[in-house]
Automatic annotation (TrEMBL):
GO terms for cellular component: mitochondrial inner membrane. The chain crosses the membrane at residues 160-179. Belongs to the CCDC90 family. This is MCUR1 regulator. The lineage of its organism: Eukaryota, Metazoa, Chordata, Craniata, Vertebrata.
């Protein structure tokens, strides 16, 4: 077997990179074993020329046998097959015509159904739009009511806050006067 790289040069390179001679030789021998194992696996799957020629001859003999069988079939049964083929063609044309008629009927029915569904969908969309508009109006009314109520509560809170501040000031002034 040939190795496609210089093992001694690889050992020297490994030694330059800091490996000892023994480590370098072990690494290179492991690489050689791996390559040999891979080559063995590859060689097992390969076919020799002799085996290839034998297989080619077998295939050629099978092809010759099939050719002979085809010639015999062509002469004996070809006319029967041709007449049967013509019958099948006629039947196929009749079936094709029936299928085309059925397809035309189904298309017409589908167009009618599709138009009915389109009108139903349009009506449903119109109803949904009306319901959505009513809902929007209700929401706007409720939001306006809530804003009004919020403003009212805000004013009440300001009144109570002002009263509380004035009360605290009055009490503070009273204490101030007592102290003075």
């Amino acid at each position: 077997r040939r190795l496609y790289f210089d093992t001694h040069a690889l050992v020297c390179l490994l030694e330059e990179k800091g490996f000892t001679t023994q480590q370098s030789e072990v690494i290179v021998s492991a690489l050689v074993k791996i390559m040999n194992t891979n080559l063995d696996m590859i060689y097992k799957d390969m076919v020799t020329k002799v085996q290839q020629e034998i297989a080619l001859q077998q295939v050629m003999s099978h092809i010759a046998g099939v050719k002979k069988d085809m010639i015999i079939l062509e002469k004996s049964e070809f006319s029967a097959l041709r007449s049967e083929n013509e019958k099948i063609k006629l039947e196929l044309q009749q079936i094709k015509k029936q299928v085309m008629d059925e397809i035309t009927k189904v298309r017409a029915d589908n167009k009618l159904n599709l138009n009915l569904e389109k009108s139903r969908v349009k009506e449903l969309h119109a109803q949904q739009d009306r319901a959505l508009t009513q809902t929007d109006r209700k929401i706007d009314t409720e939001v306006a009511d809530l804003k009004t109520m919020l403003e009212s509560h805000k004013l009440d809170n300001i009144k109570y806050l002002a009263g509380s501040v004035f009360t605290c000031l009055t009490v503070a002034l009273g204490f101030y006067r007592l102290w003075i």
